[in-house]
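Hypothesis: this fold can be encoded by more than one sequence.
Test: take the structure tokens below, design a sequence, compare later.
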């Protein structure tokens, strides 16, 4: 079962970039979209919307390989992206887009 949510996707509009790659991020909230982090569950499949982050166009170009060479290692880019996913999930919780059930 895949978690796809138009509310989560639409929530990216006007948000701050959560990736914030140093020397790359344009800090322009008008370019922010929801980008999936990591691979999906199969060939040509994206992961669930919960495994995503708010990302500006400049950072998105880097993580998707559309930018030219950058001075950041793949490991550094991956770390920034995963930390951004955690920050984005906190925003999802705050906005009520995802919920964690109370312990029973």
């Amino acid at each position: 079962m895949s978690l796809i949510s138009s509310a989560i996707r639409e929530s990216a509009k006007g948000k701050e970039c959560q990736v914030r790659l140093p020397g790359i991020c344009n800090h322009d909230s008008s370019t922010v979209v929801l980008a999936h982090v990591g691979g999906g569950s199969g060939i040509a499949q994206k992961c669930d919307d919960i495994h995503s982050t708010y990302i500006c166009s400049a950072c998105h170009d880097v993580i998707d390989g559309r930018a030219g060479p950058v001075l950041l290692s793949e490991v550094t880019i991956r770390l920034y992206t995963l930390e951004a996913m955690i920050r984005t999930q906190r925003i999802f919780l705050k906005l009520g887009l995802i919920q964690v059930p109370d312990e029973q």
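The mean pLDDT is 89. The two ends are 24 Å apart (CA to CA).
Hypothesis status: open.
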